[in-house]
TrEMBL record:
A Pfam family reported for this protein in Swiss-Prot or TrEMBL: AIRS_C
Key words, A-Z: ATP-binding, Kinase, Magnesium, Metal-binding, Nucleotide-binding, Thiamine biosynthesis, Transferase
Listed name of the protein: Thiamine-monophosphate kinase
Pathway stated in the Swiss-Prot or TrEMBL entry: Cofactor biosynthesis; thiamine diphosphate biosynthesis; thiamine diphosphate from thiamine phosphate: step 1/1
Family: Belongs to the thiamine-monophosphate kinase family.
Lineage, highest ranks first: Bacteria, Bacillati, Bacillota, Bacilli, Bacillales
Additional information: Reaction mechanism of ThiL seems to utilize a direct, inline transfer of the gamma-phosphate of ATP to TMP rather than a phosphorylated enzyme intermediate.
UniProt: Mg(2+) 4 binding residues: 28, 42, 73
Database matches in SUPFAM superfamilies: PurM C-terminal domain-like (SSF56042), PurM N-terminal domain-like (SSF55326)
Length: 328
């Protein structure tokens, strides 16, 4: 059973929540309401050996990234992060000074995104370091994965593929220039949660939104499945980071594979009407964040990509999947 099958099987064992849970298991964050405006809640875990190694992430950036990825899920709901709780399992060999660096990384996220750490838990472990971040945010108009409609424009923020390429250049000898290498490593270690763009999506009335943690193919499949639609994208429209193209040339890999299956880019991918897309484009240009139209929503199911020669390729959800690797 893969990760998503496991979650579905476990969720079936739980009672159905009441009307105060507006959106439960199955999106970037849950949407709940206890009287006033809805708020959004999300959690993520980072495990040494799975999500990072001492050689792939500095302690500071471990703090930065572990909180930033949960902030990204709040952004993917069109929400504003407000509070976080952080639980840490610390292996016996870890020096307290290293954890101080981790907290300096949290501090940067708090200062930049207004997400205050209000509590947590700390335990010792004989296993690897584990950090769990839970973030609560406000979302007046939460954006689900399930709202895409036939005729919508599919779009993505920023440039894709940099994170997995950054991991590769840290782990293998490659021919990329030092400057490109530094850029790719930055993309891996310091993802930029798109909070302002997520809010803009909410006010513009974007229909569906997801953040790219497992890879674009996986995230588009989630939108397609949740919305009951087909996503059709154009290969030559995908905004692959130029440094990824440089790396891919050297290692003779399709640059698109980094964008589609690499994951951890933490850009936003969504579906919007023509009108909402125009509002989004205007707002995003003022923020200096590229927004790229990558395709459209059709009736049907699944995700297909049109290659420049006209060939249509089905994109399976084979990005990062715990319990099942992408080459499985
Ligand atoms: N152990 C679990 N128990 C209940 N729900 C879970 C569990 N793990 C994940 N989920 C839910 O499944 C959905 C998908 O999770 P995930 O793929 O981690 O989301 P994302 O990629 O946006 O972080 C989310 O709604 C999440 O809250
Ligand atoms: C040492 C190391 N190996 C592999 C990866 C790649 N990797 C680990 S987890 C992951 C996907 C994202 O993490 P996940 O826990 O699935 O986050 P979520 O989808 O819940 O947001 C990727 C691409 C990495 N970051 N570091
Ligand atoms: Mg997500
Ligand atoms: Mg998650
Ligand atoms: Mg994942």
């Amino acid at each position: 059973m893969d990760e998503f099958g496991l979650i579905a099987a476990l969720a079936r064992r739980l009672p159905k929540p009441g009307a105060d849970v507006l959106l439960g298991i199955g999106d970037d964050a849950a949407v709940v309401r206890t009287g006033g405006a809805p708020f959004v809640v999300t959690t993520d875990t980072m495990v040494e050996g799975v999500h990072f190694l001492e050689t792939t992430l500095t302690d500071y950036n471990l703090g930065y990234k572990s909180l930033a990825v949960s902030v990204s899920d709040i952004a993917a709901m069109g929400g504003q992060p407000k509070f976080a709780v952080v639980s840490i399992a610390i292996p016996s060999g870890w020096a307290p000074e290293r954890l101080e660096r981790v907290y300096d990384g949290f501090r940067e996220v708090t200062e930049r995104f207004g997400c205050h750490v209000i509590g947590g838990d700390v335990v010792s472990t004989s296993g690897p370091l584990v950090i769990t971040t839970t973030v609560i945010g406000e979302a007046a108009n939460p954006i689900p994965r399930s709202g895409a409609r036939p005729g919508d424009i599919l779009f993505v923020t920023g440039r894709l593929g940099g994170s997995s390429a950054g991991l590769q250049v840290m782990q293998e000898a490659t021919s990329v220039s030092d400057i490109s290498k530094a850029c790719l490593i930055e993309r891996h270690q310091r993802p930029e949660p798109r909070v302002a763009i997520g809010s803009l999506c909410a006010t513009a009335g974007v229909h569906a939104l997801n953040d790219v943690s497992d890879g674009l193919a996986s995230e588009l499949n989630e939108i397609a499945a949740a919305s009951g639609v087909r996503c059709v994208i154009d290969a030559d429209k995908l905004p692959v980071l130029p440094e990824v193209v440089e790396l891919a040339r050297g290692v003779q890999r399709d640059p698109l594979s980094y964008a589609l299956y690499g994951g951890e880019d933490y850009e936003l991918v969504g579906a919007a009407s023509n009108r909402a897309f125009a509002t989004l484009l205007a707002g995003a240009s003022a923020m200096n964040v590229p927004i790229t139209r990558i395709g459209r929503v059709d009736e049907g199911d699944g995700v297909v990509m049109r290659r420049p020669d006209g060939q249509m390729e089905v994109l399976d959800p084979k990005g990062y999947n715990h319990f099942k690797r992408d080459d499985a």
